[in-house]
Every structure is written in structure tokens, then in C-alpha cells.
Amino acid sequence: MFELILLLLLGMFSGFMAGLLGVGGGLIIVPALLYLLAGSVEQSILMQTAVGTALAAIVFTSLSSVWAHHRHGAIYWHYFIKLTPSILLGAFSGAMIAQYLSFDFLRIFFAIFEIVVALIMWFGISASGHVDNLSRWTWVATGYVIGFISAIVGIGGGTMTTPFLTYNKVAVKNAIATSAATGLPIAMAGSMGFIMAGWHTNTENSLGFVHIEALLSIALMSVIFAPFGAKVAHSIDGGQLKKLFALLLAVLSMVVLSF
Fold first, then answer.
1. Counting beta carbons within 10 angstroms of the beta carbon of residue 166, is it exposed (0 to 12), middle (13 to 18) or buried (19 or more)?
2. 125, 149, 155, 168: least CB-packed within 10 angstroms?
3. Does residue 193 surpass a pLDDT of 70?
4. Chief localization class (predicted)?
């Protein structure tokens, strides 16, 4: 019962932060699941299960978050369309490759990735040009990398899509909203890949590398609380959002490294 309560609280917090920062919640869900599932999942597949479950939960979180941001008219759908095809390919291939990576490699890769993105967001590093001037192949390559890395570390892609768009002169609130939208195809392709990759590990409480009880608990609460996060995101200063985003990533990287 205590574990169930913690999973529901995790869903509340991750859903709110997904709406607020457009991160899909995986950056919060994965570190938490490493601790919550440690007693019921073998360590050899613990990281894969945490990542696969996070991606599956993000499918539901993204639907709620995207609708909330769309109602504010903040999503740039033309950027979403440019990124999505290669994001789908990258996310599926990343999920299939992740099954062969060790727990420690995934854990350290995840933490280093969060630290790098935190530094980019904190210092507000940006390009000299604008996103509309990027070539078609830049969009294709960027989408693939976002999808691939997102699937390996179990995130909705907001930690890369948001910095990518803000780096190329897109306002942070629109970048967050658009990132929330791109998180949906990442989560769909990535979670399907983890289900297929972990099919041989199925138990009565799992579907491939997706833990069913954790998924249902997190998804239920995150869907409810994501719209609240999106509402707050459109009422506070963009600079404050960037700093909050960076601090969250830095703290979570320390949590993963300490596991």
C-alpha cells in the first residue's frame, strides 16, 4: 500500500512538472522508479524497466499536457511536423538498442546527459541564427538524435527539444509547449520498442520492460495534474522557467549518480 501511495504521488508531481516544463516527466519518473522497483525487479533489467515504464506513462501525460498547451495556442505545430518522422525512427531504434546496455552505463549516461542540458539552459546558450533558417537535413538529424537518446534514457524529449528550440531563438514558453507535443510520438515509439525488447521477461505484473502497476498509478495522476502545470507555465516569467528547468535537471542527475 505504501508503495502504491508513493507511485500515485510520483504521478502527481511528474504530471505537474511535465505540464510546467514540457519534459514528459521521465526525468523524474526514472530516478524514482529505480528506488521504488528495486525490491521487485531484477537489477539486470531494473534500468530498462524504469525507462520503459516511464515512456509508457509519458504517452498518457503527453496527451493531457499537449491538450492544455494547445488551448493556450502555444504549440508550433509546423516545428512538430518537421521533427516527428525522424523522432519516431530514433525512438524505436533507441529502445531496441537499450536492452543490450548495462545498468551502470545507462545510469551514468542518463546523469551526464541531464548535467549537460542543465548547463545549456542555465547559461542561456543560443545560436546566432533562427530556427526557420535550418536546413531540412538538420531537422531530420536533430529529430533522430532526440528520439534515440530520449528512448535510451526514458524521457519525452523535452530536455533536448526545448533547448534546441530556445537555442534557435524560439520563445521558451512556445518551446516548452512544442516539446510537450513531440514527447507523444517519442513515448509511443519508445514504449513499444521496450515492450518488444523485453517480451522474454514478461511476468504477470509486466509487459516487456513496462511495469503495469507502476504505469497505471503514475498515468492516472499525471493526466490529472499535467494541465495544472501547463496553466502555471503560461503565467510565470520565461527566464524563471529556464532556471527552474536547469535546477531540476541538476538535482535529478545527482539522484541517479548516487544510486
1. buried
2. 125
3. yes
4. membrane
- Residue in 221, 132, 151 with CA at minimum distance from that of residue 192: 151
What the block records as the C-alpha cell of 255 is 539522484
Per-residue CA distances from 186 to 59, 146, 152, 206 (Å): 8, 9, 11, 21
Q: Which of 102, 17, 65 is nearest to 186 (CA)?
A: 65
Q: State the CB neighbour count (10 A cutoff) for residue 226.
A: 32
Examine the pLDDT at 156 and tell me if it is beyond 80: no
Cell, residue 158: 523535452
pLDDT band, very low/low/confident/very high, at 187 (cuts 50, 70, 90): confident
pTM of the predicted model over 0.85 = no
Residue 254 has a pLDDT of 83
Average pLDDT for residues 155-165, to the nearest whole number? 76
DSSP the chain: -HHHHHHHHHHHHHHHHHHHH--TTHHHHHHHHHHHSTTTS-GGGHHHHHHHHHHHHHHHHHHHHHHHHHHTT---HHHHHHHHHHHHHHHHHHHHHHTTS-HHHHHHHHHHHHHHHHHHHHTT---SS-GGG--HHHHHHHHHHHHHHHHHHT--SHHHHHHHHHHTT--HHHHHHHHHHHHHHHHHHHHHHHHHHTGGG--TTEETTEEHHHHHHHHHHHHHHHHHHHHHHTTS-HHHHHHHHHHHHHHHHHHHHT-
Average pLDDT, integer, range 133-155: 85
C-alpha cell at 157: 524529449
Residue among 213, 198, 174, 155 at smallest CA distance from 79: 174
